[in-house]
Amino acid sequence: MPAPLSRLGATRSEICPRHALLTPESHEWIPLPGWPGAEIAVLVSPDMGARHAMSLMRCSGPAAAEPAGPGIARFVFCLEGGAELSDGAALAPEGFAFLPPESPLRIAFAPGSRAAVFEWRFEPLGPVPGALTGQLSDCPGLPLKGDDWLTVQKMLPTDPAFDFEVNVMSFHPGATLPYVETHVMEHGLLMLDGGGIYRLDDRWYPVTAGDAIWMGPHVPQWFGALGRAPSRYLICKTFNRPPLRPA
Ligand code: UGY
Ligand code: MN
Q: What is the pLDDT of residues 137-151, one digit of tens each?
């Protein structure tokens, strides 16, 4: 049996100045304060130039997410297992919770759960919205720019009280983003199913389920889905942020 390439110093992960691809064989699982019982892989963080953090959470026994620090909003997407918020709301796989800054809610995870976690410094343009929970299957799939081969499910309300989006994009085989996007908004992304080719800056990466990506502001980006089954990714986006805001 040949040794896996990851045992020979190889990885598909690439950390570049304005974008990053983070593949599972290079994830580092660590304990973190505020996450008793959980292991966390911090994949995207301000240390690499991002304005948000994207992490994966896993636990073999019971685990919890204590309230995040001051000013920090959190979005949790359940990948496997389940969770219960301290207000009694339950999360099943593909269930999600948005917790605004200063939310006192705690999340208790069932043994064997996995979740994706986005955190950011909330930049309110008005009254801060309250906590909310939901289920991805209840979010309608809207065709992107009129192409029904490619749909977007938005999990957060699109009103200006929110400074962040978290969406799931689904691509039929062969579907592509309609053009190379360049925009001021930044993304964190987790491939959920399928795979294809992701263009980031002037690099083209093969990507598959489990891979994560950071796209900094203005990074040229494009995706084409390959294979015989649909591809899906979870993607966050800084939003409603005027480009010239106070530092
Ligand atoms: O919402 C977006 O900007 C999305 N279309 N970007 C992406 O999929 N890379
Ligand atoms: Mn984009």
A: 999 999 999 899 999
CATH number of residue 110's parent domain:
2.60.120.10
Q: Which ligand is nearest to the CA of 191?
A: 1
Q: How far apart are the first and last CA of the chain?
A: 55
Flag whether 245 is in a domain: no
Angstrom CA distances, 21 to 7, 15, 92, 203, 211, stand at 19, 6, 28, 11, 7
Share of the chain above pLDDT 90, in %: 90
Residue nearest to atom 9 of ligand 1 (CA): 221
pLDDT of amino acid 181: 98
pTM above 0.85, yes or no: yes
The domain total for the chain is 2
Q: How far is CA 65 from CA 52, 97, 172, 217, in A?
A: 18, 12, 35, 29
Q: Is 109 domain-assigned? A: yes
Q: Which residue's CA is the nearest one to ligand 1's atom 2? A: 237
Q: List the domain range (segments joined by +) for residue 165.
A: 137-238
Instruction: Express each pLDDT in 212-240 by its tens digit.
Output: 999 999 999 999 999 999 999 999 999 99
Ligand 1 mutation target, pool 169, 189, 214, most atoms within 8 A of CB: 169
Strands (DSSP E) found in 155-230: 164-171, 187-193, 195-200, 203-208, 212-215, 221-226
Determine contact, residues 82/35, Cβ cutoff 8 Å. Answer: no
User: Looking at the structure, do residues 51 and 117 belong to the same domain, yes or no?
Assistant: yes
| CA-only gyration radius of the chain, Å | 18
The CA-CA-CA angle for residues 143, 147, 148, to 5°, reads: 55
